[in-house]
Amino acid sequence: MKKKDISDMLFKDIYPLYIQKVERKGHTKSEVDEIIYWLTGYDETGLNEQLTKESTLTQFFNAEPHLNDNAKFIKGSICGIRVEEIKDPLVQKIRYLDKLIDELAHNKAIDKILRTS
Q: What InterPro entries does the annotation carry (predicted)?
């Protein structure tokens, strides 16, 4: 069986995993949504459309309204790889989101996660 590339995974399959991860640590779906809105420029309607359309991660990020200008300040390691060193722009965006969700699950303050302070 061929290993599935992360970019081919359905966003609707990954999204509940993000929510489960943060809820185990006392956080909420609305905080996950806030992170997604900040990073991608989606709003509630746009996010719901992507979930309904069963978009892959490639489609999700290719259709994003606007990657936040402060995304370049997301640094650190996810899955043993430094996000700032990832060469593939799509994989970097996917890992940015992973990193932000991970920060929320580790109880980092939301203003720090969103790079607003």
A: SP1917_dom_sf, UCP033199
